[in-house]
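User
Class, as today's exercise, I want you to study this protein, comparing sequence with C-alpha cells, and judge whether sequence predicts the C-alpha cells.
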Amino acid sequence: MARRVYLHIGAPKTGSTYVQNVLWNNCAALQEAGILLPGSPVAHDQAMADLRAASWRDTDVYWTWDRLAEKANSWTGDVIISNEGLGAATGAQAARAVESLDGAEVHVIAAGRDLWRTFPSFWQQSVRARSGWRFGAFMRAVEEGRAEAFWNNHTAPRMLRRWGDLVPAEHRYLVTVPAPGAPRDLLWHRFAGILGIPDGVCELAEPTSNPSLGAAEIELLRRVNLALGDRYPLRTPYQKVVHRHLVDAVLKRREGVTFGVGLDRADWVRELAEQQIKELQDYPCRIVGDLDELRPTVMRQSISPDDLDEEQLLQVAVETIVGMLAHADALSQPPAGDHDNVNVLSRLRTRAAGGVKRRLRLATRREP
C-alpha cells in the first residue's frame, strides 16, 4: 500500500504542463527518492478519461483508472498522479478515485489562476478539444449564468469542494499561479514543497508550456471543427490527425495576435475575482502562494477572434495550407541514413519500369 498519494487535479492552463514535464523528466530520480509516478503521462490521461466516463474517450485503451490505482497501491512510498482533467470529475467519480487508493493518505492539489487570463484560456482549450462555439457566445454565457462547465472544470473553488471534501483539511492545497513577471521556477518550487521533493532531486530544464494560439489561428481551428462534422469524434483520433498535422505542426508555430477579454468587462472580472477569493478564504485548505495572485493585475485592451474580417482569415488559411504542405513534405522525406536504401529502391523501380517498357515495345512490334 502506498504511504501517501498526491492527486494533482488541475485546473487546465495553470502551469500543469511545466510541472508535469519536470516530474516526468525526473521520474527515475524521484523513484530512487521513494516517489513513484505510476505508468506514463499517457497512462494518467487515459485513466482520467476512464474515471470521468468521458464521451470522447477511447474505450479500448490499456490504462483505466483501476489499473492506475492498482499500480499506485503496489508502491510502498509516495505516489504522484497528475492530470489537469481530473478536476472536472463529478463528486461521485472523485469519491471512487479516492476510495480506490486502498487506504493511502490522499492529498488533493488544485491550482488557481486569475480570471482575466483564465477566460480566454478555457475557451481556447474547448476549441482545441473540438468545440465550435464563438468566443463572444462563451463570454455571454458566463455573464448570463449559463457556463457551468467553466466554473466546474476550470476554477479551484468547485474542484476543491468535489475533491477536497473527501480528505482532511490539512491534506487539501490550493497553489496560486504567480503573476506575470515572477521567477519562472517559482511555480515548480510551490508544487515541490507540497510533494516533499527535496532540492536537487529534480533537474529543472527551461520551463516549457502549452503555447496559446493567436486570434486568427484559433478562429481558423474553430471553423475547421465545424467543417469536420462527425469526423474524428473521439479524442485520440482527433489529436492524432488535427493536432498533429494542423495545431502542433503549423498553428502553434505562427506568431499570432493575442486575444482576450475586452476592457469593457474589466470591472465585472474584478468583481468575480473578489467573489472567488472570498470563497477560497472561507474554504479550509492550505494556500501555497498568495490569494492576491488571483486578482488580475495586467488588464489591456485586446481583440476578440469574432472581430476578425474574412480577408484576414483567408490570408491565415492560405499561409496555414502552405505550412501544412511543408509539413507533409517533411513527413515524406526518408529518415537520415536511409538514402542508400532509397537509392537502391529507386534504381530497382527504374530498372523494373524499363523492363516493362521494353516488353511493351516488343509486344507492339509483334502485332500484325
